[in-house]
Amino acid sequence: MSRGSDAEREFLEAYEPRDYPSIAVTVDLVVLAVAQGVLHAALVRRGGHPFKGMLALPGGFVAPRESAGDAAARELAEETGLDLGGLPAHIEQLASYSDPDRDPRMRVVSVAHLVLLASDGGALPGLSAGTDAASAAWHPVHAVLESPMAFDHATILRDGLERLAGKMEYTTVAAHLLPAEFTMTQLRSVYEAVWDTQLPAGNFTRKMLPHLAATGRKTQPAVGAPAALFTAEQRHIHPPLSRRRTGPAG
Amino acid sequence: MSRGSDAEREFLEAYEPRDYPSIAVTVDLVVLAVAQGVLHAALVRRGGHPFKGMLALPGGFVAPRESAGDAAARELAEETGLDLGGLPAHIEQLASYSDPDRDPRMRVVSVAHLVLLASDGGALPGLSAGTDAASAAWHPVHAVLESPMAFDHATILRDGLERLAGKMEYTTVAAHLLPAEFTMTQLRSVYEAVWDTQLPAGNFTRKMLPHLAATGRKTQPAVGAPAALFTAEQRHIHPPLSRRRTGPAG
DNA sequence: ATCCTTCTTATCAATCCGACAATAATTGGG
DNA sequence: CCCAATTATTGTCGGATTGATAAGAAGGAT
After folding, report:
1. Chain A contacts of B15, Cβ < 8 Å?
2. Which chain C positions have some atom within 7 A of a protein CB?
3. Would you tell me which of A150, A234, B71, B151 could form a disulfide with B62, CB atoms 3.0–4.6 Å apart?
4. What is the pLDDT of residue B245?
5. Which residues are CB-neighbours of B56 under 8 A, at least 6 positions away?
6. Residue B142 in contact with residue B39, Cβ under 8 Å?
7. Residue A15 — very low, low, confident or very high, per pLDDT cuts 50/70/90?
């Protein structure tokens, strides 16, 4: 940036950051992937107080010279042992959580992020516990939401799931939970895993087809007809897919 | 909360918040209202360095014992002089901005909020400048987005406008820019102001009517037929209204 | 060859959409 | 009082989209 006037440079040199209300800033990660047709979240079990033994989201402090997005990418590797060297994980900011009492130890504002990992539907990438955690493992999201979690992490996980479910109505973001090339059935099963429902195959294809690009290749499945492989074109789906709603909107 | 075990209480009493990377947390406000069929934003002109004389969003520090949402409501009153004693302003969190260099003075993470003020379409509520500002005034959003703003506030304002424009497709959030009771034409003019476009009246009515509740009352306009008064009801609009898009989705 | 499984395409009535026209309810002016 | 002007509301029409369901196509297995 070349916006510095003489007066402004002078001001900045004289400026002394004083005792402004100082708050620790962290990132918490909602890391999602699909296996066996079920949406899973990468969660850690807390090894120390508070909330010892309870499930929590992976996360950690934002370093002095990094943005929240950079911190999210770094903590994803550190806290879960996931090495995304090649795989391009989709990371987007979710929301910030700032209740003064959300952490009993000290004042912490957390910038939550949503992370989508590609998976072929079979085995999930292996996890290894980070610093503060006793263990890290994948848990079925819709089941684990029934039980309590550490801090306000149940709320964050719920918000992350709702964000993903909602965005899948009008974007092709679901493709980030699949390899670069995928079949229509794979994509539909991602929708079914996240929305926790069943979708008619024929109508799903009709609606989704205009928003995908055919590669020309086909799968060689063990049984049944071969399926065409597609890649997602990042675009808006309009009108959106319809998802049966439970309650009113926020 | 009654989750404190003996071991946990013991831990918390012994816990000493040490020198964790400490960052100042602020809120920035995108305050919007409609007047004369044009969407306006409440902006301040900076009275001191850096970015002296440039337009900026109102905002301020989050106090040690308040959440970001509470801080947003407080700063809305302090920085703009708006007293929302009676009027229920709609406040929702937008996103957080955490680039380490976004403020040249010190490390500041800002939790941006979107604020929608009700207006009858005529005069906008009066503004008065707060502490850090030389003046506070309403500016037409679509025009002011063409010129630069202080810090990353142009980005925040753009994000806020896009959030509102998008959410208006599938919710009745636009009603928060109007009094509790409003006519179909008033609501349509809010859509036209935010989307910066024209909408056919007949089709708009057909699409919106199921999501509003008729009060039975009517307006007494100076000229033309009287219009029915509605209140906003159902929150999800499905399928959504269609807005002509410019670029791909995020 | 025939069956089974899975992917893909087709059909059909009901609904919804954009474009546009017609009707209704007022005020103001001759 | 009657008519033009203005604004709100309702109606119409062909085309597109939807949900439900079925038919067709492409393999492998028996």
Report:
1. 105-106
2. 5-11, 16-22, 24-28
3. B71
4. 59
5. B43, B44, B45, B46, B133, B149, B150, B151, B153
6. yes
7. low
A155 touches strand C (CB under 7 A): no
**Cα gap B29→B72, rounded to integer Å:** 7
Residue B166: helix, strand or coil by DSSP?
helix
Query: Do β-strands B55-56 and B108-116 pair in parallel, antiparallel, or remain unpaired?
Result: unpaired
- Give per-residue pLDDT as tens, A165-215: 999 999 999 999 999 999 999 999 999 999 999 999 999 999 999 999 999
Residue with tokens 């850096």: B50
pLDDT of residue B10: 66
Q: Is the CB of B223 under 7 A from strand D?
A: yes
For chain B, positions 169-208, list CB contacts with chain A under 8 A: 170-171
Q: Say whether B239 and A242 touch across the interface (CB within 8 A).
A: yes
Measure in Å the smallest separation between the Cα of A249 and chain B Cα atoms.
Answer: 6
Q: Closest to A249 (Cβ–Cβ): which among B8, B111, B171?
A: B171
The rounded Cα A228 to chain-centroid distance in angstroms is 28
Q: Is the pLDDT of residue B200 over 70?
A: yes
Long-range CB contacts for residues B168-171, cutoff 8 Å, separation at least 24: B168/B194, B168/B195, B168/B241, B169/B237, B169/B240, B169/B241, B169/B242, B169/B243, B170/A240, B170/A249, B170/B236, B170/B237, B170/B238, B170/B240, B170/B241, B171/A249, B171/B235, B171/B236, B171/B237
Give dist(CA A82, CA A62) in Å, integer: 19
Domains of chain A with CATH codes: 24-167 (3.90.79.10), 170-232 (1.10.10.10)
Q: Considering CB atoms only, which of A61, A236, A240 is closest to B21?
A: A61
